[in-house]
Amino acid sequence: MDIGAAESLQYDFSTVKAATNNFSEENKLGRGGFGTVYKGKLGEGDHIAVKRLALDSGQGDVEFKNEVLLMAKLQHRNLVRLLGYSIERSERLLIYEFMPNASLDKFIFDPIKRTVLNWEKRYNIIKGIAKGLLYLHEDSRLRIIHRDMKASNVLLDEQLTPKIADFGMARLFKTEETQGDTSRIVGTYGYMAPEYAMHGQFSVKSNVFSYGVLVLEMVSGQKNQSFRSGESIEDILSYAWKSWRNGTASDIIDPTLKSGSGSLRDIIRSIHIGLLCVQENVIDRPTMASVVLMLNSFSITLPVPTKPAFFIRSTIDPEMPLLQDYSSSTGSSGLEKPKVFKSRSRSSQYFANEVSISDFGPR
């Protein structure tokens, strides 16, 4: 650890406490699996976002400072910038740049606000997120797999530039490492790649899967497992695939885009790219480098996507984070890979903790 660099990033705890009005409810911006985020205003007038980590993180001061140093070195226009940290006894604070337009989900899933996002703006957001992920996968000092890529973890600045946020669940790899395996599955149900949700296997292609779900949400303006078509509700992957196969891909498009200035051909091409990203076979999914290329060059012929990993509807809230509510005694957030009891029914699986999860399989 570079002690000098670590100290230069440290904020006085009392200063941050005062900036957030003693972490008041009025200043609360949101709550995640690893803590609560507050809006703050420093004495110089600068606005900040302060994440107050859960008290049971179990992480020592040196490890915490090391992680802060690493994340502070990540510099990209599509990543939220970490400004520093603060430590006071068991308190751990992370200080980020403040994003005035909050998170992408507040726009894209709101029937009024999403009308602000015409196709040009949505496409710029789609491309920006792709560039941020490419940086994490290939261009930063370490390969970083986010593991909780979703609309609420993409923040928007004044110009609606997307910035990937919340690296609390990220896994760091050396540049020569490509994949990992874990018995503690963390993330959000509706965005998780099947190989990760079922077997704990994750790689850069797990992020690609989550990104594909996000692209389809951006095109449709609807959440991944509550896509409404007429009176019926189903998951967006299933509906997008059926529409694509039947030549009716335009059915998935947000009606506000159809009457806008966006090119129908370009929107359908984005659906095509989204379906390539959510293919069930990990090898079939493109890299983020390929995705960025496909998004920026309309002359490239796209391969035909294979079936995605369909989600059979279940009682689990697709937005439910798989976090410490079901975790072990280690003190950190996550979900222990459950013991699976197979029944005679091919599509039914039950977990030891009685929390159900959908089986993944092509129809």
UniProtKB/TrEMBL annotation:
GO terms for molecular function: ATP binding; protein serine/threonine kinase activity. It is found in: Membrane. Pfam families: Pkinase (PF00069). ATP binds at K51. Residues 327-347 are annotated as: Disordered. Residues 23-299 form the Protein kinase domain. GO terms for cellular component: plasma membrane. Signal peptide: none annotated. Gene3D superfamilies: Phosphorylase Kinase, domain 1, Transferase(Phosphotransferase) domain 1. It comes from the Eukaryota. It is a single-pass membrane protein. CDD domains: STKc_IRAK (cd14066). PROSITE patterns: PROTEIN_KINASE_ATP (PS00107), PROTEIN_KINASE_DOM (PS50011), PROTEIN_KINASE_ST (PS00108). Keywords: ATP-binding, Glycoprotein, Kinase, Membrane, Nucleotide-binding, Phosphoprotein, Receptor, Repeat, Serine/threonine-protein kinase, Signal, Transferase, Transmembrane, Transmembrane helix. InterPro entries: Kinase-like_dom_sf, Prot_kinase_dom, Protein_kinase_ATP_BS, Ser/Thr_kinase_AS. SMART domains: S_TKc (SM00220). GO terms for biological process: immune response; response to abscisic acid; signal transduction. PANTHER family: CYSTEINE-RICH RECEPTOR-LIKE PROTEIN KINASE 29, RECEPTOR-LIKE SERINE/THREONINE-PROTEIN KINASE SD1-8. Belongs to the protein kinase superfamily. This is Protein kinase domain-containing protein.
